[in-house]
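Dear Dr. V.,

Thank you for agreeing to look over these. As mentioned in my earlier message, I'm a first-year student in the group and I'm still getting used to reading structure tokens, so any feedback on how I've presented them would be very welcome. I ran two proteins. I've put each sequence directly above its structure. The first is here:
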Amino acid sequence: MTEEASLQSRMSRPHNGSATAAEFPWDQVQQLDYQDANTGSIVQACHAMIFAKTEAKFVSQLPCKAWVLMQMRFDGKLGFPGGVVSDQAIPDTTLEDGLNREMEEELALDMSRFAFSKKHYVVSHFCPKANLILNFYAQEVTEQEFKEIEGNALRAEEYGHECLGIVRIPLFTLQDGHNGLPVFLQNQFAGTSILQVIVGLCTHNLMKPDELNTAMAVLPRHQGYRRLVHQAVASFRERTDRQQTIRVPDLAEKRAVAHK
């Protein structure tokens, strides 16, 4: 599909991100498991969080904890890279095939090294107002790989069109208790991206609970939003606990084996 046709298709589709986070109809959003998200004829979208844990510090004082990649979209909102992966105009065999296509277009992501698969799946949400299922994935990379991905994004097919810039989430709060992550979370986010941010940070242990609680104080107090956060984190951890009955090599081990 051409760049213009793809953009026109997305812009013409009813968009669920027009409201601010506080106004978003969180009570209507429903969490789905992977199997439920893969059935039916509802339009699907996939987005992904790429992150690298780091010992780096901001101005030599505040620990960065991790680098988390987001982007400034064509509509002026923040979101994770990805997009629509299943409709009549954009057919894909699986959700992951569609996500990888989007990651190539928006980040020029090297599929021989960073292709997303079901193992990177985090959660799915159905937004009735937009008649859209939003599937969320996350993948950890090394610091060096993260910088490489950032640099390659400037040469991506959609850079300057659908993607207007790469953004790192500031995972720290300045001494005033406000600037840093709390201020970042008050930006305008596309669709359920603000939910995906918190779920991504929680499920991958990128911030401590008390740090997240402080940051989340600026987020919607809507009970539907809080419910979705707790549901997503609980289901992810339950699924991860089941999978850990078989030991899985950590990132460092995988990289070491791959480079032998």
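The second protein is here, in the same arrangement:
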Amino acid sequence: MQTDMTLNTPISSHPGPENWCSIAYFELDTQVGEIFKVPSNCSTVTIDGYVDPSGLERFCLGQLSNVHRTEASERARLHIGKGVQLDLRGEGDVWVRCLSDHAVFVQSYYLDREAGRAPGDAVHKIYPSAYIKVFDLRQCHAQIRQQVATAQAAAAAQAAAVAGHVPGPQSVGGIASAVRYSAAAGIGVDDLRRLCILRMSFVKGWGPDYPRQSIKQTPCWIEIHLHRALQLLDEVLHTMPLMEPRPMD
């Protein structure tokens, strides 16, 4: 059981990043405008639909132009309103408050786990005025370490299978066993980076319960890169490097 002292101890002694997150805004599959970076000394940032100039603590989407903007994006942008507030807590936990009159939809591995769903299996609806935790740094760090360890073990087992060191009737030429291990061994850095990223759409949802299967089909959405988590990912990969799976030829 974790004590308060354990929870308050930083995961890493490495100094924190200059910016705690960076936010990219998209309409359908197109990024619009520049990436917005939030300094680590600003623990709260608001992303809204207004046309005021953006400041350190406020990213205004209403001012961003897109010559290819669709009518659906134009309509959805009118309803972003006060948008959302992101709060950084502790070393890297993130909470979201929905300030808009319309719900927002978030892809969050933390909420997947809380809901008992498989990672990446669900899209979570955050209703107006709701304030909920969407990212837990310790859980993310543990998940990264677990996936890297799984990939390392699978890559080693795959190499052994290819070499014919796995006995049994299933391992004809070692290939059948190697195929079984190849999926886990194929976990790459991009898969691990996804654990350090939040995606959130305004007004329109996506996923199994909606006509849009991908967030890239929603009219306006943001992608939030969490820099402390990405920093910890780099640390893990330095101490537990991913082995490239051997080609099966």
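From my reading of the second output: The longest helix spans residues 137-162. DSSP finds seven helices and twelve strands in the chain. Does that match how you would interpret it?

Kind regards,
E.
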